[in-house]
Specification:
Length: about 650
């Protein structure tokens, strides 16, 4: 009973209603004394400090996918729908984690001040746990500044009579410095890794602390916060500037150095088991770039994962929302912009006249990896064998008869996108279950996605349970799952940081102050090698040494490698590119811009009664939505309830 009461109290402490940490609430001293005398309750309190870390949860609880230019969530019940149409204000409280994270920050301070009272914990554990809450404090501030910009810094536990209402926001660079300070202090008393104690794999360690510094300093070095003159009037009421409007190249050097520290651990400490994941890590005899790009998101705690949490239910729900209908929700749609971003298998972008890209028509030849085992695909035995090859990711790429736009693309394209007529992997070879996903005239036991008007994946009369873009997201979907019966063969995790992101941070930062640095090619080639495509410097040699060209290609590499992981939203904002305008041309060829027309295939073309895989008008680029993006949207507004409570808070620019 005691454990239940304590757990209930601290769950309420972190998550009750919308009450703010800054509210003056007396501590429950009876519960306080009970907690710090018991190891179980003290560790339970620590667990609650962790509990504010947001899981992906289909990205229902955050806008990082639905409001980025790479994705559409078709459900109007998600607040991304209103945000994309510009229907929000400072009182909307969309994705409002502001108070929650401050309560978690306060909890970290309470824990740090009191854990030494728990004599049931060893001195080493108390030291480690204090390091953990320092990390968590810095991590919550990181989550706050990337969403809201500069915030009020609470560095010490405040008394109940402190003047919370008049506390002011700290300048952005001061917030960054404090987060880095917390990471530096935390890592002193944390191990390099948890390879020897795998039950604690989700806890921070030295690598995680350094990786967070890489993220924070990359944000601080980027144009949004490094010399942005448009934030010149972003000040506290007393005139204190909250953003530095003078460009400082040294910030890129600091960002590169932070990323380099993580890379050095990978290269100098093999015991840390940190590197880019390849499928032969798990015993496969031959490297397969496609399987590597599929499995890096599915194999729990593989060598590329830096910071994550095991949470299978979120990944299972994600698959249900991505999988083509019927019997699933199938409404997580990739945009045409991200489809166009993927390279050809020769490593060239599709706009390169020598890439081999063809926009229209049906492919007359299959890709080179479509049938590596020479299955007799027109026989029943061959069909079963072929489905096994597809599900095990040994067969991949386009088939003859698929649209040329999707032919001969790089492995990451096929690991990320379900397009019209593609064979759906995540079903057993049972012919009836596979035929369930195709209309009568197209049932051949393979189950191909029918994303056009009248297709089995496009039956609903409202845009709720199908893709509005003519594509579905395949990334982070398990090909070995059985989505007809909802059977999942393994445990999954929520990945917050992986090694590829740190490498991309490193080469992006290097390029800004030393574009000829040999490390740019060295580490960029590692990313491309795992993806199975040639070096950018071989495929597109004209970029070599050009800061501007290399930047564009690096940002594109990032767009591809980290697609649908939440990075694109923040990359276009920190690079001050999200407000790139739509010029109204017949086809929007912008690379950036989160407002204006967003394009996909024509899912409403033709006749639902006669459309089939031979219907070509589906493949016309059309806008599925016209979005609104104002400069105010670079930052979320400080919730109006917090402004009303705290007179010292100034609102974010343009709100």
């Amino acid at each position: 009973m005691k454990k239940y009461i304590i757990g209930l109290f601290f769950s309420s402490f972190l998550f009750c209603g919308c009450s703010d940490y800054l509210d003056k609430q007396p501590d429950d001293m009876k519960t306080d004394n009970m907690v710090w005398s018991s190891r179980i309750e003290t560790e339970g309190y620590l667990s609650n400090v962790y509990a504010g870390i947001p899981l992906h949860n289909l990205h229902q609880d955050d806008p990082w996918l639905g409001c980025a230019d790479e994705c559409d969530l078709s459900w109007v019940v998600y607040n991304t729908y209103n945000i994309n149409l510009g229907n929000w204000t400072t009182t909307s409280n969309f994705y409002n984690k502001y108070a929650l994270w401050y309560r978690a920050i306060r909890a970290s301070l309470v824990f740090e001040n009191n854990v030494d009272r728990c004599l049931e914990l060893s001195e080493d554990l108390r030291r480690q746990y204090k390091a953990e809450v320092k990390f968590l404090r810095g991590y919550y501030y990181w989550l706050l500044i990337r969403q809201y910009g500069p915030v009020v810094l609470i560095k010490e536990l405040q008394s109940n009579d402190a003047d919370f209402a008049n506390m002011t926001r700290a300048p952005f660079d001061e917030c960054v410095d404090y987060i880095c300070e917390m990471m530096d202090e935390a890592e002193k008393d944390l191990p390099l890794h948890w390879q020897n104690n795998t039950s604690w794999m989700g806890k921070p360690n030295k690598i995680v602390c350094k990786a967070v510094k890489s993220l924070v300093l990359t944000l601080a070095a980027s144009p949004q916060w490094n010399g942005n003159q448009e934030y010149a009037n972003f000040r506290n009421a007393d005139g204190t500037p909250l953003a530095n409007t003078t460009y400082d190249e040294n910030k890129w050097k600091k960002a590169a150095a932070a990323s380099r520290e993580v890379i050095d651990i990978s290269e100098q400490h093999p015991d840390a088991n940190l590197r880019l994941y390849r499928n032969n890590e798990n015993g496969d005899g031959e490297f397969n770039p496609y399987k590597s790009c599929v499995d890096v998101h599915l194999i729990n705690w593989n060598c590329e994962i830096i910071f994550a949490r095991s949470e299978s239910s979120n990944t299972q729900a994600w698959m249900i929302h991505c999988f083509p209908g019927p019997k699933t929700l199938g409404g997580v749609g990739a945009t045409q912009r991200v489809v166009d971003a993927f390279l050809m298998e020769n490593g060239k972008p599709i706009e390169d006249p020598n890439s081999g890209y063809v926009e229209d028509g049906f492919a007359t030849q299959p890709g080179q990896h479509w049938n590596p085992n020479n299955r007799a695909v027109d026989t029943e035995e061959g069909r079963i064998q072929m489905i096994s090859d597809i599900r095990q990711s040994t067969a991949w790429g386009h088939w003859a008869g698929e649209w040329n736009m999707y032919a001969n693309r790089e492995p990451r394209f096929y690991a990320s996108i379900i397009y019209n007529k593609r064979i759906i992997p995540s079903l057993p070879d049972d012919i009836e279950k596979r035929n369930y996903y195709n209309t009568a005239g197209q049932q051949d036991g393979y189950a191909r996605a029918e994303l056009y008007y009248g297709g089995r994946s496009r039956q609903s009369g409202s845009y709720t349970f199908f893709s509005r873009t003519g594509y579905l997201v395949y990334k982070n979907n398990d090909p070995m799952a059985n989505m007809y019966d909802r059977v999942y063969p393994q445990q999954y995790g929520n990945v917050f940081i992986r090694y590829a992101q740190i490498i991309l941070n490193y080469i992006e930062a290097l390029n800004e102050y030393d574009p000829g640095n040999q490390d740019i090619r060295k580490y960029w080639d590692m990313i491309r090698s795992r993806a199975g495509v040639p070096s950018a410097f071989i495929a597109s040699p004209q970029i070599a040494g050009s800061k501007d060209l290399q930047r564009e290609f690096i940002l594109r590499e990032r767009q591809i490698e980290l697609c649908f992981e939440g990075d694109r939203y923040f990359t276009t904002r920190r690079r001050w590119l999200a407000h790139t305008p739509d010029n109204g041309a017949g086809v929007d060829k912008r690379v950036y811009g989160d407002g204006g027309r967003m394009f996909g295939m024509d899912i409403n073309a033709g006749d639902a009664n006669t459309n089939n895989f031979g219907f070509t008008d589906f493949y016309k680029r059309v806008p599925f939505e016209t979005r609104v993006f104002e400069k105010a949207y670079y930052l979320f507004p400080i919730p109006e309830t917090e402004i009303e409570k705290s007179k010292g808070l100034v609102q974010n620019p343009w709100w």
